[in-house]
Amino acid sequence: MSKQLKPIRAEKVETIRVLDADGKVISPDLEPKLSDAELRELMRRMVFTRVWDQRAISLNRQGRLGFYAPVAGQEATMIGSQFALKKEDFILPSYRDIPQIVWHGLPLYQAFLYSRGHQHGGQIPEDVNVLMPQIIIGAQIIQTAGVALGFKKKGEKRVAVTYIGDGGTSQGDFYEGINFAGAYHVPAVFVIQNNQYAISVPVELQTAAETLAQKAVAAGIPGYQVDGMDVLAVYTVMKEVVEKARNGEGPALIESLTYRYGPHTMAGDDPTRYRSNEELDEWEKNDPLIRFRKYLEAKGLWSEEDENKVIEEAKEEINKALKQADETEKMTIPQLIDSMFETLPAHLEEQKAEYEKAGE
Amino acid sequence: MAQMTMIQAINDALRVELERDETVLVFGEDVGKNGGVFRATDGLQKQFGKERVFDTPLAESGIGGLAIGLGLTGFRPVMEIQFFGFVFEVMDSIASQMARMRYRSGGRYHSPITIRSPFGGGVKTPELHADSLEGLMLQTPGLKVVIPSNPYDAKGLLISAIRDNDPVVFLEHMKLYRSFRGEVPEGEYTIPIGKANIVKEGEDVTIITYGAMVHTSLKAAEQIEKERGAKVEVIDLRTISPIDIDTIVQSIEKTNRAIVVQEAQKQSGVAAEVIAQINEKAILHLEAPVLRVTAPDTVYPFGMIEDKWLPDPNRVVKAINQVLDF
Ligand SMILES: Cc1ncc(C[n+]2csc(CCOP(=O)(O)OP(=O)(O)O)c2C)c(N)n1
């Protein structure tokens, strides 16, 4: 029959890498031009984030934090991508993307309050350009196209950046978002953190597409796949697409290949039900911290002493933030009612009065 | 009879139906290998294979559309929405498509679909997981909505839902999943959809409620009996659409007083509907206005004040005293 018809094929996708697993530069042309201080800062943030993640997990187990989604394994993607942004760029995070919004300016104690389910956790300071974490998977993607369109209409040189997991790319909002961004040619950058699993479902069950990066093709926007355990590679790709977006050259999609070492969240997920320890070991061999540490050590930019200093400093800052979270006044039902409308309708005034009368 | 938690009873109902009818399919996010995030589908993929119990990509709207298509081709889909707070993602499939299939096709096609989903507060889930959105379902003609309050009912009602040829929204309160055990017969049995259950008899006041609030109401009833000897009748609706108004009216004819207790926000929910129907069918039997005990009309709050926000036995006691002293 129609043997002569050839279906359209996506080109072979190449994974962008700067460092190998030993921290040696394998693509010198892609090595970013960062100062020594900036390189050290990247490392500091990754180490800090690892300490914070470990602490958050143990605090959660002690009942001192609430909802928490572990991030270990994903630091290079989270930190390398945020590092390429300017303060005025706007991040629309998902539930796991707390490190990005904290490094973008959200005070750590508020991140802890968010985890505990305190409203003040999501009350973003005026000069911090982030949204509170999104729970509805995919919602942030189409909102990002909207924020980016807003920047474009106002002639502001700002970029809207968002994150989604591999699972999230199955949602309609994901396709709608990247399609809108392409159609309106807006300054938006979409980062897929492909950590291989959506809770228990592996990426192979999510899609028959060979890569998630190639989903950009259908939206008519550039797509990239990057080694998400390589902080320099993530930074390089991100820097390029963010600056292009800032200069009016339109949106981009990045698929970052990474892994979550821990459970999906601390609310009872057991990863041993759906993945093997060998697989985890394989990924840990590519650990972003080890790799980058080796790179820095070879340059004489990092030592055990430096690392220990960051660990101590992280512990101290975390304790300070916890204390501030503990000292923040508890929220009340009347406050919650007050946050529903600018001016309270009569029935809510009545309900508020009832709670106040009952002493709540 | 076995002692089971509600989650075990639900698992058992699914197993019974998968065994009995090979057109039954169970699918959703994480329901396969993982056995569901609450383990409601634990072991089912192993027993019945990936053809019948399977993981879907992460897209609720996709899950709903798939169920419609499978329903049209002779299957009996049991789809899971991982948390009912995510129902908005699939609301079009449910309200504009499934619920209208029979009407649109003049009876030619139908949607023999069961939509299972956990919901309900008191377990400190993140935002948008616990919301009581059942009121939205009531406003949708063409849907039946079931909320069991115990393991025995959960199994019997779920089997009925799966066998029903119209779409049934089957909501499972997260707090009830493992909080207690109850006797659950082995094998198949059904509880009719649309029939309420009098869980406690009494003469002085009727509490109409459902889901986790059945337990809250029973506690309040006990307290009132101790405090002032008043005998409370407690009705578990079991199905909130359609509402079993006959059972309610019969009770009110006896007690002449009623309150409605629901976990959801006050405005336009199940309680409002129950009270409207009481007005239509039993107003002359009332000695006092029917009161509602509900959450306030705010969004479901973040974890920190969840417990204060949810109705508790004290608030139910207060309402009972109010109608008794009217
Ligand atoms: C609309 C919606 N559906 C389902 C969920 C429940 N849920 C939370 S996270 C998750 C898996 C997400 O996986 P992925 O997108 O790969 O991101 P990751 O957690 O791996 O970072 C699911 C199913 C949700 N929060 N929102």
Automatic annotation (TrEMBL), chain B:
Residues 4-179 form the Transketolase-like pyrimidine-binding domain. SUPFAM superfamilies: Thiamin diphosphate-binding fold (THDP-binding), TK C-terminal domain-like. Signal peptide: none annotated. It comes from the Bacteria. Gene3D superfamilies: 3.40.50.920, 3.40.50.970. Keywords: Oxidoreductase, Thiamine pyrophosphate. The keyword Ion transport does not apply. GO terms for molecular function: oxidoreductase activity. Its cofactor is thiamine diphosphate. Pfam families: Transket_pyr, Transketolase_C. The keyword Glycosyltransferase does not apply. InterPro entries: THDP-binding, Transketo_C/PFOR_II, Transketolase-like_Pyr-bd, Transketolase_C. This is Alpha-ketoacid dehydrogenase subunit beta. It comes from Caldalkalibacillus thermarum (strain TA2.A1).
